[in-house]
Recover the amino acids of this structure.
């Protein structure tokens, strides 16, 4: 990152880690079909199985329960389906209940018909309401099939962490299955599928500093599994066909190993986020933060500036060398308040998100501080002219 720019968009895609790049490079050199039985094929298989162990360790799961995908979106499409199997027996899940501030990859309902997807809301801080989920679940007809619930663990726009234990209890009481999108939580708070709170977690490589285009669905037990989204050659024990993305998986594994270790230094990221928020308050005292009153992952802050549209703010920051997002990058191109802000009841079209990471530097903070001052100056002169 040059001294003149600040990359504050880690939740969209974290910078590629040197260890991930090295793992990708050596996997490219080792290219062979991991299903081939000859030596080169077996070496490629080794690379995949090493990554599988690294990702399992991050999720607190057994390696044999990690299924590689092209990313979190594909993992969500795989998991959110009415047809599961328990061993060989079919198991029907008749409705999907999804949190209103989920990422579009789960909010869109996966392979459920639109009429079978219900949303449960959040409070003004963005915390999901377990009682509202329970109200939905109490009306669920278990004779038609079990309920499936999906929720993110940490929000990509605000960083707000959901109360997984409370949600899980409601899902268990209703006899349902729980899919947790841990894309933004991984490497920022501990994950432990072995605690039995969730049945599946969804992970994405590029949010951890691995290459783009790799992800995983991780099952807690492997006893109950969704019918595959992609069928064919039987890879991933028949759960996801197609020759594995060897280089992508290798880089994902290296990033997952790094994420496990970097949990210890997450406090330092929180301290940098604190300084960034102090700067915002100092330079733009009327800025409003979203989700700041509740527990958040350490790297994310979301705020709006009264009277300024998110797009205008984002462009102003970009021109001043700061890369950040208005709402989520995945929904960029759309204007107006994000679905997350709407669900929180925030009446503001101006929320921008800053997301940082362990390598965020003093230079980047200085670039941001200068950008803030320029924006505040322009805002001040406009107000003066009005
Ligand atoms: N879930 C969350 C919470 C995200 O933030 C994102 C991407 O921003 C995704 C899922 C989708 O991830 P992928 O790009 O791997 O499909």
């Amino acid at each position: 990152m040059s001294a003149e720019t600040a990359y504050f968009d880690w939740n969209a895609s974290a910078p590629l880690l040197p260890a991930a790049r090295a793992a990708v490079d050596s996997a490219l050199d080792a290219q062979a079909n991991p299903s081939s039985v000859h030596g080169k094929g077996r070496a490629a298989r080794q690379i995949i199985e090493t990554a599988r162990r690294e990702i399992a360790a991050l999720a607190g799961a057994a390696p044999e329960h990690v299924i590689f995908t092209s990313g979190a979106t594909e993992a969500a499409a795989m998991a959110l389906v009415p047809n599961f199997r328990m061993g060989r027996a079919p198991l029907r899940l008749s409705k999907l209940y999804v949190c209103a501030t989920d990422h579009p990859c789960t909010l869109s309902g996966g392979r459920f018909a639109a009429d079978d997807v219900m949303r449960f809301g959040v409070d003004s801080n963005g915390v999901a309401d377990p009682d509202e989920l329970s109200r939905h679940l109490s009306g669920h007809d278990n004779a038609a099939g079990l309920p499936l619930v999906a929720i993110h663990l940490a929000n990509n726009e605000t960083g707000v962490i959901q109360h997984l234990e409370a949600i899980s209890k409601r899902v268990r009481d209703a006899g349902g299955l729980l899919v947790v999108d841990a894309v933004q939580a991984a490497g920022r708070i501990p994950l432990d599928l072995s605690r039995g709170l969730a049945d599946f977690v969804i992970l994405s490589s590029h949010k951890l500093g691995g290459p783009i285009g790799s992800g995983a669905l991780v099952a807690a037990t492997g006893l109950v599994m969704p019918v595959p989204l992609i069928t064919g050659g039987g890879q991933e024990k028949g759960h996801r066909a197609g020759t594995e993305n060897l280089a992508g998986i290798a880089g994902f594994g290296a990033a997952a190993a790094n994420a496990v270790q970097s949990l210890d230094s997450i406090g330092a990221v929180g301290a940098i986020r604190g300084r960034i928020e102090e700067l915002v308050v100092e330079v733009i005292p009327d800025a409003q933060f979203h989700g700041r009153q509740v527990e958040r992952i350490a790297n994310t802050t979301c705020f709006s500036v009264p009277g300024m549209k998110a797009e205008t703010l984002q462009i102003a920051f970009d021109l001043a060398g700061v890369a950040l997002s208005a709402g989520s990058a995945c929904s960029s191109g759309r204007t107006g308040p994000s679905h997350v802000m709407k669900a929180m009841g925030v009446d503001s079209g101006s929320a921008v998100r800053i997301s940082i990471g362990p390598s965020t530097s003093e230079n980047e903070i200085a670039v941001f501080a200068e950008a803030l001052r320029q924006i505040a100056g322009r805002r001040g002169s406009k107000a003066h002219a009005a």
Notes: The radius of gyration is 21 Å.
